[in-house]
Amino acid sequence: MNVLAYNNEGGPEPRLRRPVDLRVYCLVDPLQTRGRSLVDVAKAAVAGGATLVQYRDKHGSTREMIANARALKAALEGTGVPLVINDRVDVALAAGADGSHVGLDDMAARDARRLMGRDAIIGLSIGSVAEARDAAYEAVDYVCIGCVFRTGSKPDAEPPVGLDGLRRIAEDIRRFDPKVPVGAISGIHADNAAAVVAAGVDGVAVISAIGAAPDPWMAARTLRLVVDRALAAEGQS
Amino acid sequence: MNVLAYNNEGGPEPRLRRPVDLRVYCLVDPLQTRGRSLVDVAKAAVAGGATLVQYRDKHGSTREMIANARALKAALEGTGVPLVINDRVDVALAAGADGSHVGLDDMAARDARRLMGRDAIIGLSIGSVAEARDAAYEAVDYVCIGCVFRTGSKPDAEPPVGLDGLRRIAEDIRRFDPKVPVGAISGIHADNAAAVVAAGVDGVAVISAIGAAPDPWMAARTLRLVVDRALAAEGQS
Q: What are phi and psi of B132, to 5 degrees?
């Protein structure tokens, strides 16, 4: 996992894909914090072993989002864990975040790459084999497959692909780009994370499993242990 | 109006404020087109005499907004009329729009200037004397005062300032920056536009008065005639 790969997007020189550790990818969402601050959730998650943080906000104003993103970026300072912003490249740029995560309804990955530059982390959601086929892999540093299982965090999501669908899509992605890191999202928690990793991905992305947990630190720590063990069993770590 | 002014935001060199003609500022909003396309409304408005177009969309996905903004930019090609995007600097950058318009809930004007560059048009909404006092005029190319009158296009807006409030805020803005072009918005149409201009502004911004008019071309043309006559009477044109 996290294999470096050269590609040609983002400038005249081949771009070195930025290594991204997807093992425990924690999405913080104001609606999924049990009343805690986004910063408190993110700090606990990273202290527990989260390897990447995404700020996801479908309702805040641009000004609120920039303030929250700046607070998260400051909170992660010195941890080595990058912050990416869901959808909103404007917020990512204004807050100095490390990158952005885009899906089918968001800015095209190539546009996000162009606006955020060669060094930014650009992540892409992929929900089906068709989307895997059409993806602009040269523009992205990782992909995230979902929805894997049904979940309350994304009520308007497509039908879940399940573990079999996840395996099939992950294989397809690797046919188009063998080296891109692949994660999975939706309905993943400590009890099913090992099975998710066994389906062929490099890590798990979660929202409520950490943000809405009684103890986000403990939830992140448990997920990290489960994922590390499953990756070892797959011979991938 | 449209006086050039030097200021120091946007780089080490003084920035020449980009001249912006606010006489008839047409905001196109998908909810205010009577079922016509955004492009059809914008083209009719500009053919009728609109001097600036803003794309305003509070509900579309980022991908839809970028597609709409690109279509609008292409439609205005060659007209000399610039396109600015409400709030979303990401959409403006991705679509190659001429600038963005920000308000209290949006990205700070200084951040928008930094991200969009020295040559972009950055516009700012101002709703009160307090906001006029705190504005970062050196970052913006024009300001727009509102809400002037009550309107259905902005149902969650603050109480309207009326013509007296408009005059007071416009005077205050000019105390802080005598040369910034000043427009007015909300509830303005051909029957009250002359009074609005007489209150001391350089033009009128409208949404439904053009977009929801039976004939947007005719509506823009009428507004332009009224505004030009009122500006001549004020000795401002």
A: -60, -40
- Would you call B105 and A62 a contact, using CB atoms and an 8 Å cutoff? yes
Predicted ipTM of the assembly: 0.92
User: Which chain B residues are closer than 8 Å to A91 by Cβ?
Assistant: 90
Within 13 A of B123's CA, how many CA atoms are on the CB side?
34
Q: Is residue A2 in some structural domain?
A: no
Q: Tell me if A90 is assigned to a ligand binding site.
A: no
Cα–Cα distances (Å) from A97 to A86, A100, B209, in that order, read 11, 8, 40
pLDDT of residue B154: 62
Q: Where residue A151 falls among pLDDT bands split at 50, 70, 90?
A: confident
Say how many domains are in chain B: 1
Percent of residues, chain B, with pLDDT higher than 70: 91
Domain containing A204 equals: 20-234
Query: What is the spatial distance between Cα B157 and Cα B207, in angstroms, rounded to a whole number?
Result: 14
Task: Judge whether A14 lies within some domain.
Answer: no
* Phi, psi for B29 (deg, rounded to 5): -135, 130
Token representation of residue B160: 């309207």
Lowest mean pLDDT among B14-28, B42-56, B164-178: B14-28
Q: Which pLDDT tens digit goes with each residue over B57-100?
A: 999 999 999 999 999 999 999 999 999 999 999 999 999 999 99
Task: Tell me the CATH number at B102.
Answer: 3.20.20.70
Residue listed under structure tokens 């060199």: B13
Tokens of A40: 């408190």
Is B237 inside a domain boundary?
A: no
User: Annotated catalytic, B23?
Assistant: no
- Domain contains A152: yes
pLDDT above 90: percentage of residues in chain B = 86
Mean pLDDT for the stretch of residues A117-142: 96
**Interface with A, mutate which of B90, B105, B134 (most A CBs under 10 A):** B90
